[in-house]
């Protein structure tokens, strides 16, 4: 093959390639538009919870609590062990032998011995009838001078005997709490919160709103001690629901009540602004007044004593 023929063959191949490229450039392949993903269904919109504050107003005990039978047995057992193991009391060092104070101490010590171990212990030494009578008269005179013969006041207040549930003097050995009667139900003082208001500030304002300003109270902390949630249509009353009452759903707004603990120092409750009555009750008495759902939410915030 001549050189001229080879050149022509190469030329034809180059022109063929150029025609192919030009044809492909003028006729582009159409692209499919991207498929948009299906929109995700939005969950149903729920309403924001309604914030309330409530105050558990407490009157602390002012009498020493009576020990339980178990506590009495425990203390008596410990006292017997202590008296059996301790060293004898040095009477001669603290009391002059034969003095009236020494005689009084010995008589009281004999009584304590008999209470701890029985009638066979704490036996007094034999005395003549005249000396025993003289010692008894002297001891009685000494007790009167020291005020031991005075009668102690009764631990049961007249308010307990009269069953006055509004008196702060009742149940002196127990913690009692204030309940108010609002809209046919018993509950703790409660109210809403305003915009820009702290929770403890709202609690103090709501307490004065329903219980009046004639009290000296102290809110223990700025932090709540508990939370109780319920639906708006829920009621704290113990009466059965009436037919046609709307049933709460997932979109029904929820009331979140934050509880604060407070102590009353002086004064008394004067119901106002919807509150028509009040009582001071112990933990067990509160259970009988409020609704079961309300009791389950607040029972752990109350003291057992």
TrEMBL record:
It is found in: Mitochondrion. Transmembrane segments: none annotated. GO terms for cellular component: mitochondrial large ribosomal subunit. The keyword Hydrolase does not apply. Residues 20-47, 146-167, 233-252 are annotated as: Disordered. Residues 30-46 have a biased composition (Pro residues). Residues 235-252 have a biased composition (Low complexity). Gene3D superfamilies: Nucleoside Triphosphate Pyrophosphohydrolase. Its main location: mitochondrion. InterPro entries: NUDIX_hydrolase-like_dom_sf, Ribosomal_mL46, Ribosomal_mL46_N, Ribosomal_mL46_NUDIX. One of its GO terms (molecular function) is structural constituent of ribosome. Residues 51-115 form the Large ribosomal subunit protein mL46 N-terminal domain. Keywords: Mitochondrion, Ribonucleoprotein, Ribosomal protein, Transit peptide. Residues 152-167 have a biased composition (Basic and acidic residues). Belongs to the mitochondrion-specific ribosomal protein mL46 family. This is Large ribosomal subunit protein mL46.
């Amino acid at each position: 093959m001549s050189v001229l023929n080879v050149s022509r063959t190469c030329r034809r191949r180059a022109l063929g390639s150029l025609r192919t490229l030009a044809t492909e450039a003028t006729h582009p392949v159409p692209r499919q538009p991207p498929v948009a993903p299906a929109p995700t269904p939005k969950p149903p919109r729920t309403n924001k919870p309604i914030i309330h504050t409530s105050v558990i107003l407490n009157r602390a005990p002012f009498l020493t609590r009576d020990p339980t039978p178990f506590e009495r047995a425990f203390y008596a057992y410990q006292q017997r062990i202590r008296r059996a193991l301790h060293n004898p009391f040095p009477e001669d060092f603290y009391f002059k032998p034969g003095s009236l104070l020494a005689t009084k101490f010995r008589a009281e010590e004999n009584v304590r011995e008999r209470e701890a171990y029985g009638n066979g212990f704490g036996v007094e030494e034999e005395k003549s009838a005249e000396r025993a009578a003289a010692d008894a008269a002297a001891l009685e005179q000494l007790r009167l001078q020291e005020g031991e013969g005075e009668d102690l006041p009764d631990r049961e207040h007249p308010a307990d005997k009269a069953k006055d549930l509004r008196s702060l003097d009742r149940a002196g050995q127990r913690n009692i709490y204030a309940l108010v009667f609002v809209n046919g139900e018993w509950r703790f003082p409660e109210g809403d919160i305003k915009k820009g208001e702290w929770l403890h500030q709202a609690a103090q304002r709501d307490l004065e709103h329903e219980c009046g300003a004639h009290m000296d109270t102290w809110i223990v902390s700025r932090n709540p001690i508990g939370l109780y949630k319920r639906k708006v249509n829920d009621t704290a009353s113990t009466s059965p629901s009436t037919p046609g009452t709307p049933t709460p759903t997932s979109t029904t707004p929820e009331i979140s009540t934050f509880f604060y603990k407070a102590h009353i120092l002086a004064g008394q409750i004067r119901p106002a602004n919807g509150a028509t009555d009040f009582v001071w009750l112990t933990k067990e008495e509160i259970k009988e007044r409020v609704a079961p759902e309300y009791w389950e939410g607040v029972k752990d915030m109350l003291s057992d004593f």
